[in-house]
Amino acid sequence: MTQVLPQTAQIVIRSIQYRDLETVERLCEAEADRDRAIGATDVEKPSKALTFRPWRGLKKAFSLVWTPSQQTFGAYLADQDNQLRGMVRVSPFNRTRSTWRVDRVAVVHNAEPIAETPTDTVPEQSKLSPKLSLATVGSQLLRHCFEKIWEARTWLLEVDVNDTALLALYRQNGFQPLAQTTYWLLAPEQLQEIAEREPDLPNLLPVSNADAQLLYQLDTAAMPPLVRQVFDRHVLDFKTSLLGSLMGGVKNWFRRAEVVSGYVFEPQRKAAIGYFQIRLCRDGSQPHQAQLTVHPAYTWLYPELMSQMARITQELPPQTLELASSDYQPEREEYLERIGASRVAHTLMMSRSVWHKLRESKLPMALDSLQLSEVLQGFKPARKPVPGRISLLRLWNQATTDPKADTTQPPNNASETDDSIRTNNPLLNLPVPTEFSDPPQEGPCC
Fold first, then answer.
1. β-pairing, 204-205 with 257-266?
2. CB 214 within 8 A of CB 238
3. Which of 11-15, 75-79, 109-113, 325-329 has the lowest mean pLDDT?
4. Coil, strand, or helix at residue 294?
5. DSSP for 96-118?
6. What is the pLDDT of residue 438?
7. Which of 194-204 are b and which e, b meaning 16 or more Cβ less than 10 Å from the residue's Cβ?
8. pLDDT tens across 260-314, in order?
9. Domains plus CATH for the chain?
10. Judging by beta carbons within 10 Å of its beta carbon (0-12, 13-18, 19+), is residue 78 exposed, middle or buried?
11. For residues 104 and 198, what is the distance between their CA atoms, to the nearest angstrom?
């Protein structure tokens, strides 16, 4: 049963502002320490929630030139009595913005009072238990995102399987399991051993915007229909704009990183059968991160592509390599276990569909206001129907066979009338009865 806050404790959901950046960073750092304490090792997702300060000056200057840059992600805060209760960060997952991703939900379990307020005058409503705080504040933050972002038809998130509190929160708000993801780690010694093998990739080509259609077809074939429907990717998702490439280059320059990608082309079928992208760290401060996509009918490409990526990493300082595999890719997991890769994290991918309910308008012609008689009125004929040939023939036959149809003729002319009908109606050769009148009534007994 969902627990609610008292009526006196009202939580206000608002967008993030410039003055909230330091507070949000402290909250994200506290959540990152909590994740490390419970053993969460997915370093990619928390890093997305911590990148506020390094880019806030550049984003602020860039917003003067191009305002839509502020709409690339959304962050909302939960305020209660001028105290930060929680934060949620969401971002669009695809170019059409039909699928959005929940990057982080952070909740303050024990709210600290502001500097001007004495400690002994802190209201009792601000002291919430962790379970109550996550169940109420987290749900309000998620519901606000569902109502605020109308263009999102599907929501997607990834949560560690050991974080039972977040799993309960997401299930409470309608998220269902979609797939299981396992993160693997390859040591520098293993990469050096794999790099000794010469890869057999004669049709390895660099990636450009002209290859977006081939990569889209490969991505479509490499995942089950349910995951494909939730991701809702199109050809545009595999293209990079000029502005996006410039921003990516500046971002990689600050992080001392480099991105190398390529795909394997099948000339006989005119299709891409394998794709890889590796983010290299030049100073050795962070592990290399790789993304791998292989067509299910060409699983023999796993050793070849891994050997190619291992050779690329040998030109940089020794560092580990991270990559992920889903439960619908058993061949990849089998290969990674065979080469000695170690499992470092196990997450659950969850999704939720949103159907926005339109407000009901009480119009005079609304369907709810129509009565049954008014509905049936439209099915009545507007005018008297014109008789056709079949109806005239039916009336003519009825008049000729019914003796009571003409009661104005005297009885002595009945034989002449029957003869005229028989001669004038050659279509029907039915015998005409001479007498169908009722028998005379008997009088009373004497």
1. antiparallel
2. no
3. 109-113
4. strand
5. T--EEEEEEEEE-SBPPPPTTS-
6. 53
7. bbeeebebeeb
8. 999 999 999 999 999 999 999 988 888 999 999 999 999 999 999 999 999 999 9
9. 12-174 (3.40.630.30), 181-353 (3.40.630.30)
10. buried
11. 41
